Automatic annotation (TrEMBL):
Gene3D superfamilies (UniProt xref): Acyl-CoA dehydrogenase/oxidase, N-terminal domain, Butyryl-CoA Dehydrogenase, subunit A, domain 2, Butyryl-CoA Dehydrogenase, subunit A, domain 3
Residues spanning the membrane: none
PANTHER family for this protein: MEDIUM-CHAIN SPECIFIC ACYL-COA DEHYDROGENASE, MITOCHONDRIAL, MEDIUM-CHAIN SPECIFIC ACYL-COA DEHYDROGENASE, MITOCHONDRIAL-RELATED
Domain Acyl-CoA dehydrogenase/oxidase C-terminal: 233-386
Sequence similarity: Belongs to the acyl-CoA dehydrogenase family.
Protein name per the record: Acyl-CoA dehydrogenase
Gene Ontology MF: a single term: acyl-CoA dehydrogenase activity
Keywords: FAD, Flavoprotein, Oxidoreductase
Classification via InterPro entries: Acyl-CoA_dehydrogenase, Acyl-CoA_Oxase/DH_mid-dom, Acyl-CoA_Oxase/DH_mid-dom_sf, AcylCo_DH-like_C, AcylCo_DH/oxidase_C, AcylCoA_DH/ox_N, AcylCoA_DH/ox_N_sf, AcylCoA_DH/oxidase_NM_dom_sf
Boundaries of every Acyl-CoA dehydrogenase/oxidase N-terminal domain copy: 10-117
Record lineage: Bacteria, Bacillati, Actinomycetota, Coriobacteriia, Eggerthellales
């Protein structure tokens, strides 16, 4: 453990085991109904609270355990083995949910709210995406100042997660329409019970059921200046820094799922006998297992490398680039591993309720990762920009 952590090595290892048993036991079981209702039951939130899943990542001043980034990510790997919607909720809880307010909130807001994350008294979602514009200077939601110095929010957001269980929304909006670049944008901490805040229902998704996706509509929603995060014009910078870290959490989600898919594929390949031999003994199957393990191993090392650098300096020169690399490579990993899992399982893998694990659900759930925190094109644009800026040479800490 890092020397500042409030738990011991033994307690941490026991906690990782506890989380795995929870997600592969009660959470997997609970998900069967959530696949139909698309809503988490109260029992899910209660179990998450009881198992410290809203607490473990927080600094001790806010009720947490002072874990470093690598330790937080290791817990994330465990809960990512479970249902995708719950993973999405818990990944967001451990990350942007509290970090944005902590990093960019005004002292009076932080004093009021930062100790309320530990037991989910508050939960904050994040809204940047719009249906009618690109993510960046092309956003259309506005927050213009009125004659009293307050901001008046108008516009719409789309594809927003956790809308059914959030108390606040981090919103990126245009504050200076005269400007043309990212400096048009600012970030706000918006109370969801403010007059003018509306949730617009969306159709159900392919996987990750229960994560509360919807659109948002703001009509003349008035915000006093204390709800501005950082400075005016800093909106995109706040979004990019927060998304960078979150991209690694997405990469870790893919790693957790890919690791579980690899393990259940191995078990199945050992058990399934055709023409007198387990398929695990066939060279074609061994090649699949080797490719799966290669991707899982390389992804793990890339994430651990990011986390080590982040723990030394959260604003180091390679945060954005390495986070995009982790996210992009994790999509390649989960794509290959989920395809190979399906081939190793044969027809049984296409059905629900396999005795080895939820193959069909894992295959669907992992597809959300293509889009969460930016599509592969966006990761490539980011990596190319950073690589061209520094001439292609990354400095490593090993
Ligand atoms: C499960 C799920 C959860 C989500 N949760 C949230 C959330 O909580 N909050 C939130 O704000 N958003 C959320 N999103 C939205 C998500 O971030 C976007 O779907 C994603 O960033 C892609 O943006 P888009 O859907 O607007 O696609 P588009 O912008 O329409 O992009 C379509 C394709 O075109 C490419 N493209 C677009 N513009 C360019 C360009 N200039 N140059 C090159 N290629 C380009 C994209 O890379 C992509 O491949 C979520 C999405 C999903 C699926």
């Amino acid at each position: 453990m890092n020397p500042n952590a409030k738990i011991t090595d033994e307690q941490f290892e026991a906690y990782l085991k506890q989380v795995r048993e929870l997600v592969e036991g009660p959470f997997d079981e609970m998900q069967k109904e959530i696949e139909v209702t698309n809503t988490f039951p109260e029992e899910f939130y209660e179990l998450a609270k009881k198992n410290d899943l809203y607490r473990f990542y927080l600094p001790s001043e806010y009720g947490g355990w002072d874990l470093n980034e690598l330790e937080i990510l290791r817990v994330q790997e465990e809960f990512s083995r479970g249902p995708g919607g719950m993973r999405m909720h818990l990944h967001h809880a451990a990350d942007m949910n509290w970090r944005i307010l902590d990093d960019y909130g005004k002292p009076e807001l932080k004093a009021k709210y930062m100790d309320k994350f530990q037991d989910k008294t508050i939960y904050c979602n994040f809204a940047i995406t719009e249906q009618n514009g690109g993510t960046g200077a092309d956003l259309h939601t506005t927050a213009l100042k009125d004659e009293n110095g307050n901001y008046v929010l108008n516009g719409e957001k789309w594809l927003i997660s956790h809308t059914d269980c959030s108390d606040f929304t981090y919103v990126i909006a245009v504050t200076d329409p005269e400007k043309s670049g990212d400096e048009r944008l600012s970030a706000f901490f918006v109370p969801n019970d403010a007059p003018g805040f509306e949730i617009v229902p969306m159709p159900h998704m392919m996987g990750c059921k229960g994560a509360g996706h919807a659109g948002l509509k703001f009509t003349n929603l008035v915000l006093s200046p204390e709800y501005l995060l950082g400075e005016e014009g800093q909106g995109m910078e706040i979004a990019i820094h927060s998304l960078s870290v979150s991209r690694v959490h997405i990469a870790m989600s893919n790693l957790g799922m890919a690791q579980r898919m690899l393990e259940i594929s191995l078990k199945r390949a050992n058990d399934r006998v055709t023409f007198g031999k387990p398929i695990a003994s066939r060279q074609m199957i061994k090649a699949k297992i080797a490719d799966m393990q290669m991707m899982v191993h390389v992804l793990r090392t890339a994430i651990y490398d990011f986390a080590r650098d982040f723990d030394i300096d959260p604003h180091n020169d390679y945060v954005t680039e390495k986070a995009a690399i982790c996210k992009l490579f994790s999509i390649q990993t989960v794509k290959l591993v989920s395809d190979e899992m399906l081939e190793i399982f044969g027809g049984d893998g296409y059905f629900e309720d396999s005795p080895y694990g939820p193959t069909e659900r894992l295959y669907r759930d992992c597809r959300a990762m293509w889009l969460e925190e930016g599509a592969p094109c966006v990761q490539r644009i980011t990596i190319a920009r950073e690589t061209q800026n520094h001439g292609g040479v990354i400095k490593y800490n090993f």
